[in-house]
Amino acid sequence: MNTPFHPVPRICPRPSGKIRQPSPAPPWTLPAATGSSHAPSRNVECFACRRRTAVPVTAVSARCSHCSAYIKLDDITLHSRTHRTKVQTCGCVTVQANADLKGLHIECRDLILNGKASGDLLCSGVCKIKADQHISGTLRARRLTVEKKTAVLVTGGVHVENAWIQGTLEGALTAEGTVTIHRHAKFLGDITARRLVIEEGGIHQGSLTRLS
């Protein structure tokens, strides 16, 4: 009489077979996002309602979150053949060296004058003047820089937070902060400012009114 066969299961301390390791991610795969998923943003001022709204730093245009007006954000270059007289952008405006533009109305973040531009100029950032100018209008900026060997005449007045004069500037200047007249630089006109610094060799011809 045959004895019944009862198989006994075999138990191994390690799993049999080869365990496949996960393949590495390809080099073009972007790393996983960490922290907040929101893109970096900056605040810009709407030209229509004058209220500030947040926009992505990489955007070239946007809509105001308050009045839905269109806001231009890209940089603009004005050359000698430019026919436009009104420019509004939250980017940088550059006037080329061969340009001689008149009757302008510019509102921008930063303004660089390599050529001549006359009119009302308003920039919320830095205004750099690198060429001789006769500006028949007002000039407003957070910081004004008149570079060396540059003569600038502003008939409508200059309103800034701080001014760095390395060339010659003529007009009426109002500064909420400091006006610095560098060595061999010259300012011709009345100054209203919180602080005036004149380096040795600098010249100021006009009155001074100090803000408290």
UniProtKB/TrEMBL annotation:
Biased composition (Pro residues): 1-12
InterPro entries: BacA/B (IPR007607)
Region of interest: Disordered: 1-40
Family: Belongs to the bactofilin family.
Protein name (record): Polymer-forming cytoskeletal protein
